[in-house]
Amino acid sequence: PTETIEKKGSKDCLENSKESKNTISETKDNILLRKGNILLFYSSDGDPLDSGAQILTKKKFIKQPGARNSPSGEITQHREKHISYFQIAWDGKIPLKEILKILKNMLERDKTDSLSLSYTPEGIYTLSWDEIVENLQEVFEGTKIRISICTNEIIIPDPKDRAEIIGEAHGSAVGGHHGVTKTCARLKQQYRWEGMKKEVRNHIRTCSSCQKRKILRMKTKQPMVITDTSVDAFDKVALDIVGPLPKTKAENIYIVTMQDDLTKYCMAAPLKEASAAQVVNAMAKHLISFHGAPRIILTDQ
Length: 301
Hints:
301 residues; alpha/beta; Leucine Aminopeptidase, subunit E, domain 1; Nucleotidyltransferase, domain 5; 3 domains; 4-stranded mixed β-sheet; 3-stranded parallel β-sheet; 9 helices; elongated; disordered N terminus
């Protein structure tokens, strides 16, 4: 149900391409994930020559050209609803470099800055894959066109296999019943398909182990409210307790602070313990006896 290609070589060419202003780069993507500007090689009789053409034709993403005896070197551009690609008809006799020069002119004319093709380890005709990469480098070096070589290491599984794959990534000993983000990240190391996140979310919602261990996050704090502004001094006073602190000689370990809301005038009194009786006594002695009883007292929830 999947398309994978074993990698053999081409590392030297790709390493050299890094010195050519990154004209060519390698990606683990599957060619099926590319939506635009894909380069495909076919014989004059319409047979797919590179792995990308083979995969896309087999999966019926595109129609096989058929035996129409296209002249070697002919480049046709196709734009369909879900994909756009360039087809090159080639018999192996015309130098590949000459065909690529024509393709480069087409891309520059259309102001296209990217091109994708599939890694083909066996090469095409008498050209090895390394020689194909060298031709691409020579033709496209110095242009704004960036070429991505898809190694097809990312697998696109059949829809019928996706539930099992998600279950393994989420519920196995390695998966650890993580959430949507971490489960998707684990899947994307090897798989990719449209709607993956939605399917993972639905799977986790129906996972019995996750539902049993799910933590219900209850609101434990009062909602914030907008308070009015005082018009008189000591009409509204805010109280707070600081501590416990190092014990003093009088054996006090707390401090109660009293701040006027309007003037921001602040008083502090020592406490032996953070009890209601101690706080009331401190208020009576340091606040009420001097400024009268406040209309409103604000404290922490």
